[in-house]
Amino acid sequence: DALPISLHAKASALQAMGGTANLTAAIALYDRVIAIKTAAYGADHAEVATTLHNKASALQAMGGTANLTAA
Questions:
Q1: pTM of the model as a whole
Q2: How many CB atoms sit inside 10 A of residue 21's CB?
Q3: Which of 34, 36, 35 has the alpha carbon at shortest distance from 54?
Q4: DSSP letters spanning 14-28
Q5: Mind listing the pLDDT tens digit for each residue in 20-41?
Q6: In the chain, what is the straight-line distance between the N-terminal and C-terminal CA atoms, in Å?
C-alpha cells in the first residue's frame, strides 16, 4: 500500500524542515497514517508503533515533553 508510505515520507520531510507550521502539518499526516495502518494491521503492529513514535518526536519538537500527553 503506497499511500501510507507516501504520507509517512511527506510527514517525515515536513518534520525535518521544522517550524511550527511544518510540524503541525506533519502531525496531521502522522494521524492519518496511524488511522490507515491501524485499520490495515491492527493497533499492536510495529508499523503503527513506528508512526506513533514519529508523531511523538514531532510533538516533542513543537514544545518539549508537555506535548507528549497529546500523543
A1: 0.86
A2: 10
A3: 34
A4: HHHH-SHHHHHHHHH
A5: 999 999 999 999 999 999 999 9
A6: 24
